Amino acid sequence: MDVILATSVWCRLSGLLGRPPLVLGQALWLHPCHAIHTLGMSYPIDVLFLDERMQPVKRVCALRPNRFCWCRGATSVLELPVGGLAALGQACDDGRFKDRQ
Fold first, then answer.
1. pLDDT of 94 above 80
2. I need a labelling partner for 95 at 20 to 30 A (CA). Which of 18, 24, 61, 62 fits?
3. Is 83 helix (H, G, I), strand (E, B) or coil?
């Protein structure tokens, strides 16, 4: 997987804004981070919140543009193209995580 690392405040704040949509096999990793937004975006994304041990604690499938999302206990966030969670083996209906559509 091709992962873009965003660790500076500006990179985390701007995230995917102004970038072309991610394709399967790509991700943006925001660290540290526990909340994201899709304000100004024109496409949905899959989101995976991770704790300090890099364990998934929440996932959001196809978060639509102009939304906010957060997760208590998360220390970083992986933003993926829609379908990226399924490609990682995290089926959106397996019930292992707290979901938000």
1. no
2. 24
3. coil
